[in-house]
Amino acid sequence: MEGRQDVMLKNAASLSNYFFESFYLSEWFDE
Fold first, then answer.
1. How far is the C-alpha of 3 from the C-alpha of 23, rounded, in Å?
2. In 10 A of CB 20, how many CB atoms?
3. What are the C-alpha distances in Å from 30 to residues 15, 16, 26?
4. pLDDT for 29
5. CA–CA separation, 31 and 18 (whole Å)
6. By C-alpha distance, which of 3, 6, 25, 26 is closest to 14?
7. N- or C-end of the chain: fewer Cβ atoms within 10 A?
8. How do residues 7-27 score in pLDDT, each as one tens digit?
C-alpha cells in the first residue's frame, strides 16, 4: 500500500508540474 501511495504522489506531482509548465510557457510565449 505504501508503494502504491508513493506512485500516486509521484504521478500527481508530475501531472501538476506538467500543467504548470505548459501554462507558464503558454503565458510566457503568448503573442
1. 30
2. 10
3. 22, 21, 6
4. 72
5. 21
6. 6
7. C
8. 999 999 999 999 999 888 887
